[in-house]
Design a protein that fits this description.
Elements lengths: L11 H18 L5 H14 L5 H10 L5 H18 L5 H16 L7 H18 L7 H9 L5 H19 L4 H5 L1 H12 L2 H7 L16 H12 L7 H17 L5 H6 L2 H9 L4 H15 L6 H7 L6 H13 L9 H23 L11 H11 L4 H16 L3 H6 L3 H11 L14 H9 L3 H25 L1 H17 L18 H28 L4 H23 L5 H16 L6 H13 L9 H24 L1 H5 L2 H13 L5 H17 L5 H20 L1 H6 L3 H8 L1 H10 L15 H15 L3 H12 L7 H10 L3 H17 L17 H5 L4 E2 L7 H10 L4 H27 L3 H4 L5 H9 L7 H17 L5 H31 L5 H28 L24 H7 L1 H14 L5 H14 L21 H24 L7 H15 L5 H7 L6 H11 L6 H11 L8 H4 L3 H4 L24 H6 L9 E2 L2 E2 L5 E2 L10
Antiparallel strand pairs: 1-4, 2-3
Helix pairs in contact: 1-2, 3-4, 3-5, 4-6, 5-6, 6-8, 7-8, 8-10, 8-13, 12-13, 12-15, 13-16, 15-16, 16-19, 18-20, 19-20, 19-21, 20-21, 20-23, 21-25, 23-25, 25-26, 25-27, 26-27, 26-28, 27-29, 29-30, 29-31, 30-31, 31-34, 33-34, 34-35, 34-40, 35-41, 38-39, 39-45, 40-45, 42-45, 42-47, 45-48, ...
Length: about 1250
């Protein structure tokens, strides 16, 4: 056998090196060593790894058990370095020698060795296996079996098990470059040695017989299962046996996700693991639970696999065992047993996976299996005081109740009563409970969530599933469920203040228990009404006598209950608001055919207008909320029940005119009442089209006339004129007079009479503009209308001559509102004062997890400062925000009328200019709203008009977004070089958070535009895809248009370098998707004909850009430690560039060859290897990461692994490789648990389905100068 070094380790030189290594290790691990001396020793130890004789020295040090463990460990690290970094340079004889060293060390393991040394040797075994097993090394399995069979040596069995676990994890779950390159051979060999030979023959009767890598016919799954079974009799008495059993279960946990199910069955693995759950050893139980969790997390089983592997889990013996285990795992929140609690969380996930198979494989359940007791177990788990334990099974119940056979069967048991009770109770808004609450569910929630946004997301998910269950139960047991729900609500409403302090406006809290109780019961009823609507819709198709009588009885009960509710008297404005919402919900859903009840509700709305109480700020805010909700509910009634309201229209019109004439209504309330009448005429089905148009014109013509006003047009002819009609000229003069730039604390500087008058004038001037009324009537002209419906056609006719009149002035409004954010436009301020403009116009907001105090505290602080300079600044920015965001809303509504808007010939250029000319001056928070508008405009654009409308909009958008976002990231990086503290640090954290949200909004917009699944689009005709064959999809439209694709990809290239892993990941996926589109040249045989080919000139330009700029950005990020978590995605992108473009341009090859430490011949070899047929993306990525292994960034965590080089300190530490865990670390979240802590993608930026302007923010729009 050929030694690696020329001198070996035994000569004089070798002896000297070994002695120096001993001395250096002593220096490094001596806490009294000076830093300079320690650094010199570390450098020496690192340099030894580069010596040709390093493996010889390593073997010598590691094999001599007289050496201290730190010396042995360093010896192993020398072998590890040789295997990982020099294997390709060694001759076959040298490789055999190193393998022999590892095998020799493996044979020598003993129970006296520290566990981390045995772990390190096992890891070295696997490192060698990854490189030559099933190629040069064929007898590995024989050697493992020999070690396994060493008599009376549990340590050898544990060692073999450790090798097998690491091998399975590395091959099937790891991202190792070497594994990626040899994936096929290694995975096949791994399946071979684990699976019984008979199972392989049965599963693959026609398989090609490859090299013989297995030892015997038994297979490791069978050996390990039998071994675990043998251990069970002694795990509670013998610690060594218990350790081996846990290690064996860890191997099974790694194997069952990929093993052939038949192998798990024939080896008795499932039953043996279930037996482990019955032991008294908690650690063995948890290891067994991990195996069951992994097994039943598999996506599916066939019928033949389900019957032996899943069906027995519903049996009485297993259910009894699991019931006892779950009862045991219950915890006391005031004395939390973490082992039990973690067990309960994992158990819940496992049992939910087993329960989900009832839905998937219901027809495969053998008739002898009775699942009722299992369903009772699911009820027991879902009732856990811990919402985190409960939620996996809650999701399972949503599936079971929707099953066409299981749902009705469960509905006829007592189970649904328990579920309905549970879901009703848990719709309480736990996030609004006071901090001193002692409720166990609340306390466990605090234990399980790290941040407020996380808690809110989790509770939103829990509410969503609870609501789904209530809907399902109502559909299954309509009468009984409503009887329970309504009686519970009525009893609660009548006893709201039992044990609670009475209402006090002076000490008002919007999160009092009475308010939370009413909200919870109202949410239950609203969910039940959704279920009722689905029940009625399903049965109305084939109505029978039973349906008719049931419907009549239920509607009668509803009317009776609502009548009782109308008679109840509530003083709390927020309770009155919730009751109002509930009454309208009944009226427009369940009682939508009852005009008399609707009129009662309408009368209640009109009468519900309590007087404001400004002396009690919080109470006054609650009254405002009630008033605003009254107006919203009016519109809702009109939209849902216009025909009923048409019958009493004349009386309503008279009443509205009377109220307006009284002079007691502000502008918002006047518009609300007028739009209420407008909606009735607009939506009613019994109005002649011509009559409808004439009556609606009476509402809209005055709106148009306001835009014809010569004085308005004159004012909008210049920015100064805009400032005058807004009062911003006076604001500038006042700020200059107060020399606001010399005042640090605006919030403590009171306004004088002039300032207070100015503040009031700023708010009043908004009412003089045509913006709010235009937005309102346009909104109700297009909201929730089907294209082609009579109301929609009426809207088109109504506004047809208005758009050319409104749009030119509207774009001026928008341009000037954006221009306000550029300090140089504040010409009335002296130059030295213009630095305060940014501060004046920067929105204040509360951000969960960053801002100090609660959201209510924030609002209280803002309200307290209304009469200060800070309050005036808020009024100024409120005025600008009102114009900006109202313009956005109007443009959005206009876009809903299709050709009327998109077909406006002169619109695209001026619109692009208005939107983006000064966009770079907007804050990141404000730009998010702008991007949302752009997405709406692009999505709504008819495909026939895309070429006319989109190019100037998108080209300008991506140019400006690139400038804005790139400059913000540069500024953030410069800030990071300066330490901040206190309030400044909080502001910087908020700014960074918002920048991340803006970047994400931008990259998601790009991904949406380039989504290959988006085919066709809106059309000027009634059929959305009628012209899809003549017009390219949006993705291809963007890619073929160089004016769009160039700025788009420029932004994406820059986004690869922005320090946000989520955004980087999105952009990398976008690039991987589009790279093949620009390949050009001869298409491969079998490729579908491209109806919309990219012009060769454009394709060549983009190819070069991607091959240079994008490739450089990807390499830079690969080198950046920040992006360590997306390195595999970066490697895949680089591989994709080479695979598709290396044959057409030398640019990517030249860039790679020019990197430091990368040889040109290695790049050429990489390109050849990537061109091999049959490589998957994982293998291609592995080839690239192997080429660039010396350039890859290392995470901060990895940088701290000093022991990688010099061994260990005090026997433990990072890099030693302690025994691999059989499960996640204590308290670590599983993938499922983490998903419950995040907002689902389909409702991103929303809570309970209600859209928000931006995630996790609460702005102050409307607080001083209401913007809507």
């Amino acid at each position: 056998m050929e030694s690696v070094g020329s001198n070996g380790a035994g000569g004089p030189a070798g002896t000297e090196i070994l002695a120096r290594i001993h001395d250096a290790l002593k220096v490094v691990h001596d806490p009294h060593t000076p830093n300079d001396t320690r650094q010199q020793a570390q450098t020496f130890l690192e340099d030894v790894k580069t010596l040709a004789e390093a493996p010889d020295h390593g073997s010598s040090l590691a094999a001599d058990k007289s050496h201290p463990p730190i010396v042995q460990h360093y010896g192993l690290s020398l072998l590890e370095h040789a295997i990982k970094h020099k294997w390709a340079e060694y001759s076959e004889g040298q490789r055999v020698y190193i393998r022999g060293c590892v095998l020799h060390l493996s044979e020598m393991v003993s129970r006296n060795d520290p566990p981390y040394l045995r772990s390190k040797i096992a890891q070295l075994w696997v490192e060698v296996a990854k490189r030559c097993w099933a190629a040069d090394w064929m007898d590995m399995d024989d050697l493992l079996v020999q070690l396994w069979q060493v008599p009376d040596s549990p340590v050898h069995k544990e060692f073999v098990l450790q090798i097998l676990e690491i091998l399975s994890e590395e091959i099937f779950n790891g991202e190792d470059i070497v594994v990626g390159i040899r994936e096929g051979a290694l995975s096949k060999a791994c399946v071979e040695i684990f699976t019984p030979a008979a199972v392989l023959t049965e599963a693959f009767p026609n398989r090609q017989v490859g090299p013989n890598v297995r030892s015997g016919d038994e297979g490791w799954i069978n050996r390990i299962a039998l071994f675990v079974n043998e251990c069970m009799g002694n795990v509670e008495q013998n610690e060594e046996v218990k350790t081996c059993a846990i290690r064996a279960l860890a191997v099974l946990n790694s194997v069952v996700p990929w093993a052939i199910p038949k192998a798990i069955d024939v080896t008795g693995c499932r039953q043996i693991v279930c037996n482990c759950m019955a032991t008294r050893s908690v650690s063995v139980q948890r290891a067994a639970l991990e195996v069951l969790h992994s097994l039943y997390s598999r996506s599916t089983f066939t019928h033949a696999e389900f019957v032996p592997l899943v069906a027995p889990m519903y049996g009485n013996d297993i259910v009894d065992l699991f019931t006892k285990l779950f009862e045991w795992s219950k915890v006391d929140v005031h004395d939390l047993d973490d082992d039990k609690y973690q067990f309960a969380k994992k158990f819940s996930e496992m049992i939910s996976c087993v329960g989900n198979y009832l839905d998937r494989k219901f027809t495969s359940i053998p008739p002898t299996v009775n699942i009722e007791r299992f369903l009772h177990l699911l009820i027991l788990v879902v009732q856990s005081q811990s919402l985190v334990v409960s939620i996996p099974v809650l999701v399972t119940w949503t599936r079971l109740l929707n099953h066409k056979a299981l749902g009705p069967a469960a509905a006829n048991t007592s189970l649904v009563v328990a579920l309905l009770e549970l879901c009703s109770a848990r719709l309480l808004r736990y996030e609004n409970l006071p901090e001193d609450t002692e409720d166990p569910t609340y306390l466990l929630l605090l234990e399980d969530t790290d941040t407020i946004p996380e808690r809110h997301a989790f509770l939103g998910n829990y509410r969503r599933y609870s609501i789904q269950i209530i809907e399902s139960i109502v559909q299954l047991k309509l009468v009984d469920s409503f009887a329970y729900i309504l009686s519970q609500a009525e009893n609660a409403f009548k006893a709201l203040y039992d044990g609670e302090p009475s209402l006090s406006p002076a000490n008002y809290s919007k999160n009092s228990m009475p308010v939370l109780k009413v909200d919870a019961h109202s949410t239950v009823i609203e969910a039940a009404l959704k279920g009722f609507a689905k029940w009625r819709s399903a049965h109305a198709k084939t109505p029978d006598e039973e349906y008719t009588s049931t419907l009549k009885a239920v509607e009668s009960k509803f009317e009776e209950w609502c009548g009782s509710l109308l008679e109840m008297k509530f003083e709390d404005p927020l309770i009155r608001k919730r009751v109002l919402e509930l009454l309208v919900a009944f009226s427009v859903t369940a009682l939508d055919n009852n005009p008399n009840f609707m009129l009662q509700v309408l009368q209640h709305i009109l009468m519900t207008w309590p007087t404001l109480q400004p002396e009690h700020k919080l109470y006054n805010d609650a009254i405002r909320d009630l008033q605003n909700e009254s107006m919203v509910e009016l519109q809702r009634l009109a939209s849902k029940m216009p025909d009923h309201l048409l019958d009493v229209y004349d009386q309503l019109e008279g009443r509205v005119q009377e109220m307006i004439a009284s002079g007691n209504l502000d502008e918002k309330r006047q518009i609300a009442y007028r739009s209420f009448l407008f909606i009735i005429i607009h939506r009613a089905s019994r109005v002649d089209p011509d009559v409808r148009l004439n009556r609606l014109a009476a509402f809209i013509d005055p709106v148009k006339d306001r835009w014809r006003d010569q004085s308005l047009q004159q004012s909008l002819s210049s920015f100064d004129g805009f400032c005058q009609i807004m009062g911003l000229d006076k604001a500038q003069a006042y700020l200059a007079q107060r020399r606001i730039h010399e005042i640090q604390d605006w919030g403590s500087t009171e306004l004088d009479e002039v300032g207070l008058a100015l503040q009031n004038e700023l708010e009043q001037r908004q009412t003089m503009l045509p913006l709010r009324i235009t937005k309102s009537f346009l909104t109700y002209s297009v909201e929730k209308l089907d294209k082609g419906s009579p109301p929609y056609m009426a809207s088109c006719a109504l506004w047809q001559d208005g758009f050319p009149l409104i749009l030119p002035e509207l774009l001026k409004f928008l341009s000037y509102a954006h221009a306000c954010h550029d300090a140089k436009n504040w010409s009335l301020l002296p130059d030295e004062m213009r630095s305060v403009v940014g501060r004046v116009l920067t929105d204040r907001f509360w951000q969960a997890g960053i801002s100090e105090g609660s959201k209510d505290d924030f609002y209280a602080r803002v309200l307290e400062k209304k009469g200060t300079l800070e309050g005036l600044a808020s009024s100024i920015r409120g005025a600008v925000r009102f114009v900006r965001e109202t313009c956005y809303a109007i443009i959005y509504c206009m876009s809903r009328l299709d050709v009327q808007f998109y077909g406006f010939t002169e619109l695209p250029g001026p619109l692009a200019n208005a939107l983006f000319a000064d966009a770079i001056s907007l804050s990141s928070h404000q730009v998010i709203n702008l991007l949302n508008l752009v997405r709406y405009l692009v999505d709504r654009c008819p495909i026939e008009l895309r070429a006319h409308f989109l190019p100037p909009i998108l080209a300008t958008c991506f140019q400006q977004m690139d400038m804005k976002i790139s400059s913000e990231w540069e500024a953030l990086e410069q800030q990071g070089e300066v330490q901040a503290a206190g309030e400044r640090l909080t502001e910087e954290m908020k700014a960074e958070s918002i920048l991340r949200q803006l970047t994400y909004a931008a990259v998601i917009m790009v991904a949406d535009f380039l989504d290959p699944a988006k085919i066709g689009g809106p059309s000027v005709s009634d059929k959305p895809d009628s012209n899809g064959s003549r017009h390219p999809p949006l993705r291809k439209f963007c890619l073929v248009n160089s004016s769009i694709v160039v700025p788009l990809l420029t932004f994406c290239a820059h986004a690869i370098r922005m320090h946000d892993g989520r955004c980087c990941g999105v952009v990398l996926r976008v690039f991987r998707s589009i790279i093949p589109e620009f390949q050009g040249g001869q298409k491969p045989v079998g490729t579908a004909h491209d109806e919309f080919p990219i012009p060769e000139g454009t394709a060549q330009e983009i190819r070069e850009f991607i091959s240079s700029e994008v490739l450089r950005a990807a390499i830079s990020s690969l080198h950046d430690p920040y992006f360590v978590d997306v390195q595999k995605d970066l490697g895949t992108l680089i591989a994709s560039i080479l695979v598709h473009y290396a044959g057409q341009t030398p640019t990517p090859r030249d860039i790679l060859a020019g990197l430091p430490g990368v040889r040109a011949q290695d790049v050429d070899e990489t390109i050849r290897n990537l061109g091999r047929q049959g490589l998957n993306s994982r293998q291609q990525r592995a080839i690239i990461l192997d080429l660039l292994k010396d350039l890859k960034g290392v995470s901060i965590h990895e940088m701290g692994k000093v022991s990688k080089s010099v061994g260990v300190t005090s026997g433990v530490g990072v890099g030693i490789g302690s025994a691999r865990s059989s499960g996640p670390r204590k308290g670590a979240r599983t993938k499922m648990a983490q998903e419950f802590m995040t907002t689902p993608a389909e409702s991103a930026g929303a809570e309970d389905g209600v859209p928000r302007k931006s995630p996790d923010l609460e702005g102050v729009a409307g607080m001083f100068a209401e913007g809507s």
